[in-house]
Amino acid sequence: MFSDLELPGKVYPNYQSGKWIQKEGADLIEIRSPLDGSLVGKVTAMCKDDVDEAMDIAKRAQPRWRDVPIHRRAEILHRAASILTENAREMVEVLLYEIGKDRKSGLSEVLRTADYIRFAADSAKNMPGESIPSESFPGFTKSKISLVTREPLGVVLAISPFNYPVNLSASKIAPALVAGNTVVFKPATQGAISALHLVKAFEMAGLPAGVLNTVTGYGQDIGDYTVTHEKLDFINFTGSTQVGKRIAGLVKMKPMLMELGGKDPAIVLEDANLPLAVSNIVSGAYSYSGQRCTAVKRVLVVDCVADHLADMLREKVAALKAGNPAADDEVTIVPLIDEHAADTVMSLVEEAKDKGAKLLLGGKREKNLVHPVLMDHVTTQMKLAWEEPFGPVLPIIRIRDAQEAIEIANRSEYGLQSCIFTQNIDQAFSIASRLEVGTVQVNGKTERGPDHFPFLGVKSSGIGVQGIRYSIEAMTRPKAIVINISPHL
Ligand code: NAP
Ligand code: G3H
User: Which atom of ligand 1 is nearest to the CA of 162?
Assistant: First the structure.
């Protein structure tokens, strides 16, 4: 159904003003598969003029879109969700070849995205606003009522990362649109073809021209220009802390929502249910080869159960299949997005080994396929204790007690999530209240969903709050109309 998106020569056009456009002679970027280096397709390296055009179109379309009743906007989103579901198998194959995501995870991403879009549509319809009486404030009688509704912000710039090119794009676009904003969407370059398929679903759903517009091209070339564009009103960014900080430094007086990197710890205490901890830690750390912001990226385990936990982890990690997910649906450890990512992982592993960490498993690499690495006796002197590898590597750091776990967890520059494994609920609450993160999971792995929960990072892990209702709130502002009531009849 999406097949007409591809032009001859495997070129994928951009969507602007309700049309798929491909300018003759435009520079093209080859998107090669992380699985085997084959050509997945080509997208345009857009220039500043193209960005201007997208922003102009979005700005002009916004007043008309804002005036479309919410229930009509929601209907379009519901149709887009159905189209995604109907075309899930095709989307899964695109995700597989473009970003190396195994079919099971790809299907879960697409179906979850359809659910997200439907939930966003329904949430927006059910945000009624409020009326606030003046009499509740000292010194006031019933002399005023503030009627508070929510207004869209205008043009939202959505920038998404490579690892969830459908879901982390839709989780910006859907709440922005249903709230009455128009969108300029710059997907990750590796992931752009998957993202353009998502846009196709919105087009097929009947989105009016100009409401959603895409800009492809390397962030390092057009990113600075795009994020500082005078016509945008809000930036919704997910990606690395490095790029997030750069954007935050460049942009003046524009609100933004940022979800950035993480170094989520799994804290395992002496009374933990170890089988439960092990299965959560392994799926949390290694699914999609650890290329998830919320992956478990370090284990902090108390000495008295550390040997036992390490043995159990080793057994489970050894059973993970590594290879090409196109050839084998049982593969968990897929090739990393590129060789540079594999270099980063291997250099962290080497440094830790040189400083005395014990390699329990792994160390083998074939191009960008890094076999799962498990390292014990990692210390706080090693980079692996602090840096985000975005790959299939898990360091075990042994600690004295819960106090030391909190201290090491909080010493990180990141603050996305943490998880705690203990059967003592009082202890879990006490530790949770002291961890400097957006979310603490008790007896479960770190993860974003379900998508209507608040999802946020503190410190270098983000600014603002995602999650369906929270995202709609972030991309709208209150508008108050105050009725002054005459005391005289
Ligand atoms: P990235 O390199 O930071 O890229 C993210 C997006 O920013 C891409 O679309 C990229 O475009 C664009 N970009 C690059 N330079 C830019 C600039 N100067 N101005 C504006 N945009 C620019 O991240 P990634 O490698 O795709 O994703 C992995 C990282 O994202 C990890 O650190 C991970 O933890 C984080 N992440 C966080 C969350 C979360 O919710 N907290 C979720 C997913 C991922 P190009 O692709 O063209 O470079
Ligand atoms: O990569 C970052 C995503 O926000 C993580 O989502 O926990 O559902 O994998 P996830």
Answer: 26
Distance between CA atoms of 260 and 161, rounded to whole angstroms?
10
Asked if omega into 450 is within 30° of 0 (cis), the reply is yes
Tell me the domain boundaries of the chain.
11-260+464-478, 264-454
Q: Is the Cβ–Cβ distance between 193 and 31 less than 8 Å?
A: yes
Spacing, Cα 292 to ligand 2 middle (Å) = 5
**Ligand 2 pocket test: which of 448, 455, 470 has the largest number of ligand atoms within 8 Å of its C-beta?**
448
Q: Is the CB of 250 under 6 A from ligand 1?
A: no
What spacing in Å lies between the alpha carbon of 306 and ligand 2's midpoint? 27
Question: DSSP assignment, residue 420?
Answer: E
For 255-291, how does the pLDDT look when each residue is reduced to its tens digit (9 = 90+)?
A: 999 999 999 999 999 999 999 999 999 999 999 999 9
11-260+464-478 folds as Aldehyde Dehydrogenase; Chain A, domain 1 (3.40.605)
Angle at 10 between CA 4 and CA 12, to 5 degrees: 60
32 close to 39: Cβ distance less than 8 angstroms:
yes
Q: How confident is the model over 172-202, as pLDDT tens digits?
A: 999 999 999 999 999 999 999 999 999 999 9
What's the 71 CA to ligand 1 centre distance in angstroms? 33
